[in-house]
Amino acid sequence: MIKVNGEIREGFVGKTLSELLCGLGYKESYIAVELNGDIVKKDSYGAVVLKDGDCLEVVSFVGGG
Q: What's the pTM value of the predicted model, to 2 decimals?
């Protein structure tokens, strides 16, 4: 089980952070990700393998005027 923005998500244990983000419809260029309290650098998304119990916060950037 992995928690993303407070919601439990199944099926992502053992997948990369990039796979999770793509599977949930996020565009990597417009977000920031915190994994278990630590910010993850964008160039690491493909290398970070998710484990059971991980907790993620995904923040989308919104432009405007």
A: 0.90
